[in-house]
Queue: 3 jobs
Job 1
Amino acid sequence: MIDPPLSAIAARRLEFFPPFRELKIQVLELHEHWRSVRILLPLNEANRNPGGTMFGGCIASLADPIPALACHRNFPEYAVWTRELHVDFRRPGTSDLELRFELPLASIESIGRELDLRDRSTPMFEFGFYDREDRLVVWVKNRVAIRPQGFSK
């Protein structure tokens, strides 16, 4: 079962999160515990390159923190950050793009078990950006570090 949607206030808070404000994102779906996230990244004059397609840096800027934010929502007692980001541009972004991220309950449980055993986890998440025709435009692999607060090597 998918968690219920968060309030409109939580969605607006994410839209005005400083790294996202200039991207002019629109939260389409944001469920409690971030198990399902859909965000519209509009193609506009600010992020359109001279070739008429979306700048890859704008796509990467939105892709970067989403898994870390989802993990922090589920494991708030831990420090969470992006450890590795791989962005595979499969076709030009010639329209608005929709980020679709899923965090299955099985992944949350697996991460929880690893944290119980090792007090750290470094899970990999995969998700995509889709165009108006529902075609995959960008495939993202994002590894997140989940560590005890105050962790240092």
Job 2
Amino acid sequence: MRLGILGGSFDPVHLGHLVMAEACREQLKLDEVWFVPAGHPPHKTDRELAPAKSRTEMIEFAVAGIPEFQISNIELKKETTSYTVETLEQIAAEDPDRKLFLLIGADSLQDFPNWKQPERIAELATIVAVNRGRQDPPGMEEIEQKLGLDVVDRIRVITMPGIELSSTDIRHRIRSGHSIRFLVPKAVEAYLNEHQVYNPG
């Protein structure tokens, strides 16, 4: 089984996440893509995330009817910081026959050498750096200098349509009273309107 792992806070999930997952599914011939919402991500300690229940339910609405897209709550079950290497080790241990692909934005690749145990991550999964549209592909020289050629050989760069969306901007638009129509799936927009996840007060 060829399994893509797409982690993130998904605060909230938006169409850019779905386009990225679909581009990877198609180009890498993945059987499934798992959306893995973070419980306690190490890089987002400066603000409080929306409740895990809300973030998970929004993903459920976003991927409903797409059998290749699944949700894993593996990181939400942890009470400590969620590290990618530990998530991959657990998924690999559950079924050693899975071939894992870690899906990340190409802009995150330069920081990859600073992740916890990046060499081990590269052993566990092919690292897929997803480039948006016409952006320049990420350079590998610095990664090779820091981590070696073996890690670079485990990195693939693919391109998705150039959709410039961010969860930060969507939260800002909601709090400012601006439309998020066509930025998130319609069911997610309805959920946000009903539950007022990001509205102050």
Job 3
Amino acid sequence: MDRVRAGRWFALLTMTRILGTFVAIGLLLGHRVTTYDVPLAAFTVAWSALTLMLFGRSARLRAAPAAWAVDVLAALALVCASGDWRSPFYIFALTTLVLPATGLPWRGAVASGVAFSAAYAGVAVITRKIPSDTLLNTIRLETLATHLFVPVIVVLALAYAGALLDRLRAAREESERLVLQAERRRIAWDLHDSAKQRVHAAHLMLSALEGRLADGDDRVLAGHALSELRAATADMETSVAELRTPLDGRPVDELLRERARELAPIGHARIDVVGALAPLPPLLAAHTFRIASEALTNAVRHARSDTITVTLDPTHGGGELIVADDGVGLPDPPPAGGHGLRSMRGRAETIGAHLEIGPAPGGRGTRVALALPTPGGPP
């Protein structure tokens, strides 16, 4: 289960658990149920606070069946302690189904609801509050049936909602992927058929003009112009190649390792790609890869470094990506930003990420750090 979906279901658990706690305490304090209503109310508040704190802090605990089982047993123990299966803790007990219903596959979720109903039926037998004529009394039979079947209905509803959300998310991601792919192809065609041809034509004309110039400042200036045009052509070819490279849902680390292999023959630096990010939505993955690819290309072409390291860390917020080299570093003062730097900053702003470009640790080389936004959180 991805973090965004897990966070939403935990929010549902929090709301329903608080509601169930208030209902139970209200019924306990408003109607004398047992001789120890106050201790029961205190335990309910303490258990709610403890479970919400633990589940909120640990995603692993939220996904642990053993933790779900302990939570269910505690709720059913409260029902037993109230002395009646028609208990003030019934709604509270239903909240224990949120995590298994949304964290298990469809069949497992349904099985958890059936198991809960069976356990609740056992509680009803233990409390001995089922009259012998229940099967002959319509109201009592309906009440018992409602208490036994509501858990299954709740689980079915939550499991269906989870499956529907997964399908909607998959459809949205596929739509984003197709839109990005079409836009990349359009831009690549425009660059190849228009801008690249114009640059090539300008290169040919300057080359012809250079041969006619006498040695001097004009010839030197023409030579510099030709060098810039050759560099622009190389950059454009790289951009066209990147635009035509489909991401197709591949992990960012896989794409960057492929890009590192492509760039290795251009320079003499060793390129290492370390770690991996969690799966990202298509739009976020595309911009993350393009930013890292631009930083990697700049390091290969301009840094004159021996080693370039790309580090991907999924443990900080939404993930962190760092491209560091041991080359000549940024000029002093740093450049205001060419097209490549502006593009990187623009992409980072688009996805709500934080981009830092500065000296590498130790003052040697350059470090580009991209902090991705936390899923479901503010940008």
